[in-house]
Amino acid sequence: VFRRRRAPAPAARRQRTIKIRDAAVARRALIDHADVFSNRPAALFAVPLVTGLRRRRSDNILSVPYGSLWRALRCNLTVELLHPTRLASIEPLQRDAVESLVADVADRSAGEVVVVRERIRAAVFPLVVRLCFGDGLGEHQLRELQRLMKDFVLAIGDANRFPGKSWPARLLHWTRLHRLRAFRRRQADYFLRLIAARRQTRHTDDGVFRPYVDSLLDLRVPDADNTCRSRRALTDDEMVSLVSEFLGAGTETVVSCVEWTLAHLVIEPEAQDKLHREVIDGERHRVMLTPYLRAVMLESLRLHPPVPLVMRYAHAASPAAEEMTGLPLPAGGGARMHFMVRDIGRDGKAWTEPNVFRPERFMAGGEAEGVGPLPGPKEMRMMPFAAGRRSCPGMGIGMAHVGLIVAALVREFEWAPAAAARGRVDLTELDGFFKTMRTPLRARATPRHARPRYTTAYQVVNHI
Ligand code: HEM
């Protein structure tokens, strides 16, 4: 029996993954050597399977290589929607979402168990859809969008488990492949129909803010030669990927962060009481992001960053990369860098009792006084929104959404574990597309007032 020997993989194709758990090393790479560490690996997910395209990258901000196209897309999102000066115009939409959430929970009979994740998603998703498409989508369209986004997350998971991209694998699993591609077509068709409708109506909309899709329709990005000499409109594929990214990133990160935060407040009634007192007091002074609320959110993000792993691709040719990691990178091959966000936030060398939920560490006089959601100019202790040029542009709006929701839920209800859980909350993490709770949080919400007081007069634009 003859078996052909396998030729060793050429050096240029061999890739090595380096895991980084040290905040100082991560800071040096992502901030000091940003030129080297501003690209993600080409195949973040099994993109060709999900997109059905003969491309290795998707077309969204997260995936495009560092360069003029990325700059144009990111700048558009930031300037048009996420910049702190835009938060004031988004506030009425946030308030609608919070009011509908409070009404939704209050509608349940006192003491009824609430599956927290489902209720939060039901309030946040319509908000994100309004930010994306503006007003005017009906209940039916909203439900269809929600179903597509749920299927999208499942499709990514399925594609990542796909047994290979070779032709035999494709033939053997053609039904799965067919399903994935059909899904992508369905998603694209539906998004493009909504985008086309928006193209017709956007000039007659006198809303206070400009939805994301309007800005994408007007955007002109650098042409294929990657210089800024000629510009073009976005393709349909790009529009679909960007809308999908906006709906997914804008919803699931916030849902995950609120669920984890509430889980800790359910376990620790003293922290919940303290937060309740402070929220009431803050309301009197028309301040939303009070110090303890901010501390609770940061502590939750430190322990449970919704994106637990940040990936980068560093080219081998760079001496900076070698110097930074202290590891010889494979000649010609480059290396994948995995920045372990969750491990950095729980590093025993940087944090006392790192696995304990203790918001006080972020308060005045605490060990992490002055630490914020993004790394400071000199020191980095945690990175829930990553760091450097490709850090999260949605940090401000994400923190504002989470803060408003947590404040309203604690102001209106007293939260306790579901009786069936015998007072226990399972904090086991599930590694998926985002880091979520393995068992969705189920809690009892007892109204604190005879009738919920939905309307608030917060100033959202507030020191995040
Ligand atoms: C609590 C909320 C959020 C958290 C914890 C979070 C976290 C992150 C992290 C860690 C990254 C970096 C990923 C990497 O480098 O591989 C990221 C990137 C990104 N996030 Fe967020 N995010 C949140 C909310 C949002 C929101 C609300 C939006 C938009 C509406 C958003 C849009 C994006 C985009 C477009 C990127 C890619 C940036 C780039 O490559 O330049 N995120 N986010």
Concise description?
This protein is mainly alpha-helical and 464 residues long.
Helix content: 40-55%
Radius of gyration: 23 Å
Question: From N to C, what is the helix and strand string?
Answer: EHHHHEHHHHHEEHHHEHEHHEEEE
Could you tell me the mean pLDDT?
Answer: 83
Note the main attributes of this structure.
10 strands, globular, binds protoporphyrin IX containing FE, 464 residues, three-stranded antiparallel β-sheet, disordered C terminus, three-stranded mixed β-sheet, mainly alpha, 48% helix
How would you describe the overall organization of this protein?
By secondary structure, the chain is mainly α. The protein contains 15 helices and 10 strands. Strand 3 (221-222) and strand 4 (231-232) form a beta hairpin. Residues 7-13 and 457-464 have low confidence and may be disordered. Helix content is 48%, strand content 9%. The longest helix has 32 residues, at 236-267. Helix 4 packs antiparallel against helix 5, helix 5 (116-133) packs antiparallel against helix 10 and helix 10 packs across helix 12 (291-303). A 3-stranded mixed beta sheet has the order 1-6-5. A 3-stranded antiparallel beta sheet has the order 2-10-7. The site of protoporphyrin IX containing FE has 26 residues, from helix 10, strand 5 and helix 15. Residues 40, 61-62, 74, 245-246, 249-250, 253-254, 257, 305-307, 310-311, 384-386, 390, 392-394, 397-398, 402 line the site of protoporphyrin IX containing FE (HEM). InterPro entries: Cyt_P450, Cyt_P450_E_grp-I, Cyt_P450_sf, Plant_metabolite_P450s. Its cofactor is heme.
